[in-house]
Amino acid sequence: MFGLFKKKQKNDYPANDLEQVLMEARTDLDARETFYTKLLWADLYVITDGSDPRAEGDATFVNFVALDTGHVPVFSSLGRIYDNGIIKEECHYLELRGQDLFEITKGASLVLNPYSDYPKELLPDEIEHLLNGTIYDLLKEDEGGLTQEEADQLNQLFEGANKRQEDLIYLDGFTKKSLSSKAEKKLRQSIVDFEQILEKCPDHWQSMFGMAKSLQRLGEHSKALELLEKAMELEKVNHFVALEASVEAVNLRNLEKALQYSEEALKRSPDSYVLLSNHALNLLVDGQTQQARETMDKAMEINSQDQVNKNVSNIIDEVLQGRRRRPTFDDLFSL
Q1: Taking a C-beta distance cutoff of 8 angstroms, is the pair 179, 62 a contact?
Q2: Non-local CB neighbours of 277 within 8 Å, separated by 6+ positions
């Protein structure tokens, strides 16, 4: 089914059973099997360039839109297209059952709900295993032979670790508030919980991310960055992982890595004004003032009313006009 997406679509999350189980699958090992089953039979939405499908023999070809990373964005509901205001205009889409879509796009890398807080990369091998039914055997192997009881225990550990972090960590990575001894104890215990999960599931990037955030808040930035770098190798779509790695590189005054990871975050979410502003600051510190101005212009086009955007834009202008020296990371921390 072809249609034209209307920007007034609600973007409440979750909007359906697939989105609900996608959230659960991030922390619940048992939910992963349910997620793949629902994904195969769910109605999914893909953005097209608006051109008519063309038939060649028995095959029908459609021009899907791709992200800068080469991934084809796929959405579990129409509202997901409009997540975080990244897409603002009406756009053409195609609605297909999951199995049919995966057959059409064989060999391509997809990403489910790329603009939401719960993106899911779908690689060609993973899709092939899904289509031939072997994905469920792989899931059991990935769980390392965990019993149901062990899986439940890990899920409880993860939920508990996240609960300990509530109101103590922030996704911007920067905070000047001191920690009480009680708060520090909570964060230390969350680290112990995440470590126990990683002992059983070494590739659980969500635990790496959570553990890194606790370490970041405790001021242990080298350890935090190391974990975030490992998480980035495993999770290649979520822009928060790359953003936080960039923040930690800034905390360590490592300009090369700060630029590398803020650029990687933008590849994962090219139209985020937060990521654009962050990258512009890194470019400015590196002396690439004109590139910083151009990057910041893109951020202002998306959201010119955001106060952080205004502040960063003014700083860049003052440097360009010679009214301010190029700032260092230490200068930015003192703002």
Answers
A1: no
A2: 296, 299, 306, 308, 309, 312
Question: Residue 123 is inside which H or E element, if any?
Answer: none
**Cα–Cα distance measured from residue 180 to residue 164, given in angstroms and rounded to the nearest whole number:** 14
pLDDT in tens, 143-199: 555 666 777 788 888 888 888 888 887 655 455 567 889 999 999 999 999 999 998
Within a 13 Å sphere around the CA of 126, how many CA atoms are in the beta-carbon half? Answer: 15
Name the token pair of 77. Answer: 């509901």
Instruction: Find the radius of gyration of the CA atoms of the chain.
Output: 22
Task: Select from 284, 24, 15 the least CA-distant residue to 159.
Answer: 24
Q: 322 with 223, same domain?
A: yes
Domain boundary (122, 142, 162) is at: 142
Read off the amino acid at residue 262.
S
Please state whether the predicted TM-score (pTM) of the whole model is above 0.85.
Answer: no
The region of weakest confidence among 26-30, 63-67, 159-163, 287-291 is 26-30
- Residue 286, token pair as written in the block: 């590196």
Structure tokens at 98: 């999951």
Q: The domain containing residue 318 runs over which residues?
A: 148-333
Backbone dihedral angles phi then psi of residue 97, each to the nearest 5 degrees: -65, 145
- Are both 126 and 155 inside the same structural domain? no
Cβ–Cβ < 8 Å for 262, 279: yes
